[in-house]
Fold these 2 entries.
Entry 1:
Amino acid sequence: MSTATLSRGTPSSQGLTPQTRPHLHFLDGIRGIAAFLVVVTHMWGHCFLRTGETAYPLWFRALSVFKYGHYLVAVFIVLSGFCLMLPAVMAGGVMKNGVVSYIKRRARRILPPYYAALAIAAGLMALFPMLRIDDGTIFSPYHRSDMAGSLVTHLLLIHNWIPHWTHRFDGPMWSVATEWQIYFVFPLMLLPLWRKWGAIAPIALGLALGFCTVGTILEDACFWYIGLFAMGMAACSYCFPGKTDTEVSRFWTWPRLWGVFAVVAVVMLGVARKSHHLMLPCTDVIAGVLAAYLLIYCTQKASAGESPLVLRFFSSRPVTMLGMFSYSLYLLHLPLLYIGKTLLMPHQYSAPINFLIYAVVGTPLILGITYAFHRIFERPFMNAPNPKAATAPTAAKALNNA
């Protein structure tokens, strides 16, 4: 799999039918790289957040790019909107087999590995008393909350509503809860808005609803991701236009798209300067727009049979294979870092040494363990159980695994 390919069909002015639904290999690659960088971000934070820049200034500055790992979650959300929108686009703007069937598919795909990872994280807390010491960061699974209430809200996937419970057990699970809730908003609100008023309406309403939660108890849930999910929807409908969308798609040439990004960036940064609470949602919007543009670029190049470097990278076999178990990697890596914390703490190594140990020893172990977790708890519930099969029927199902 050296280049991105379309298993069947290409975007056209006539739109796509379910029989020509493509499998875009680079989507797996983008997902895999994003998940891997989240792991490195948490390694960096685990080692350097407590010591700060003054203790290890050269290391801190050299690796400080990883402190922006939060924005990779925006990439996941936009990618999810893109993938889940594709079957709706090709079904004429409706949910194939209805909303109930769609929710069942999402639950089967998302919940089994989620609950398995939650059980493992809770078991680690019970096994290692050291993990029940609250250090006030995402790397403490205790994080200022009682066990019972936090566990119940995690089981219901509403823990992202309560600040003290958001990062309990397994920090990255907050974004799984947010995305799970967006799954319901998609068919009930975003898709009807898209059918009636086009791509801008769900983006605008999603961002408006999200920005209304800034400064409230719901701020940590990042509900402006609803707007980012809608950006993924817009990118998909742009790349795979139906007959009624053709003229609109032709209007949005790359110069105009980048012009829109420049305006969005200026507006968002201007708004962010008004309040520190607005900095994160505004920069998330910028990251979301860039992610949508990346998806548009790669899709257009792949459909044209071109293979620029970025497309070859995201479509390369190691990267796409990483993407196949990226959800398991995302779910389980932090509990594995908790174990590393208990093993390294008695030795009192410096932050740079801890980071090197995590990178050289921890990374292969994390990848191996999370792949085994994927085979046991995730792959049996995926719609396409054999990702190596490139036949049209399995390719047609693969995008549901986003």
Entry 2:
Amino acid sequence: MRRLTQYQDEFWPRRAWPRSAGRKKVAVFAGTRPEAIKVAPVVSLLRAHPECFEVSLCSTGQHREMLAQTFADFGLTPDFRFDVMAPNQGLSALSSMLFHQVGGFLATHRPDVVLVQGDTTTVQVTALAAFYASIPVGHIEAGLRTWDIGNPFPEELNRRITGLVSRWHFAPTELARNNLLQDKVPADRIVVTGNTVVDALLLTLDAVRRNPPPLSDRVEEAIARQRDIILVTGHKREIFGQGIRNICQALNLIANVLPEARIIYPVHLNPNVRGPMFELLRHAPNVYLEDPLPHKAFVRLMAASKLILSDSGGIQEEGPTLGKPVLIMRNVTERPEGVEAGANMLVGIEPESIVRHTVRLMQNESVYAAMSSRPNPYGDGSASERIVDKLRSDMMCVSRQSEAAG
């Protein structure tokens, strides 16, 4: 068995990380592309206050290739990279690797604060490892709930466990705050911030408008010819198997009913998604199966789309910001604010429901206009600022108390 120091040297490069007087070491973790998008503006703002914080960005690599693309789009490079993924890896094996590597990192570098975002396995394991190491945790996008432990799987469990061990709960909405209060979280530990995805989207939109990133030739042609674009994403574990096949059946039917539209699907790298998609949709001439896109390119495609079909949580928040209706291909959502506002619609994963609602929105201009003009319930673009302000305030209070005690 290798010594711990040998294992640490393999994954975490040795470097000086001195602790300056009055400054706090903040380790920000991200494992998937959505996490990277949502932590990026927070990391940038934390680094804008070097008098308060020494920031380390840690990439666990759950979405290894897509993480690198996304961080690059925000001008960020991880300070530490972990290697936790293996082909067809189950959640138990992934969790074991994360505990070993994240736990070792925390033992070596001893940050003052750990920040996690969302509800992935990276989030849950990192929060628990920090708890075991007596390091306070800040949970960005805290308080989302379906109150069904198996749906979505495993996200509902991940975020509830993370909530149990967090010191700061950065809730995106009042509903999320109320969920946390129902879970007996003290009110003074909850801050309603809005969602950092809105901050990230507004920053990215500005960059995309100034310098549009390229898309594939056929997608560029669809945009240039002003085709109606239906953007599709789907990757959650709960739809693996029959759910993916249902979605493929629905997209084939939509392609036949709306032959002038272009259905564009940047297909996730997970083989449980790619295999069925390319098997069942490769012959539909107006269905474009694309490789995963860098974040800026994806934002450009969202902005060019008329309608979005997705199981993604982030897209449920981004769609209303862009004025794009989102049909949620899931049976339940932990983001009901968009549905209640009328900007999103929960359609399930049965082909008949997906097809019916898609065709209705694409063919009925008044229905489409009503849905696309709903206000965005997910924030005003200042969530990251509220998070950093709270950390600055609390960290400075801790410093003053320590000085007074001394």
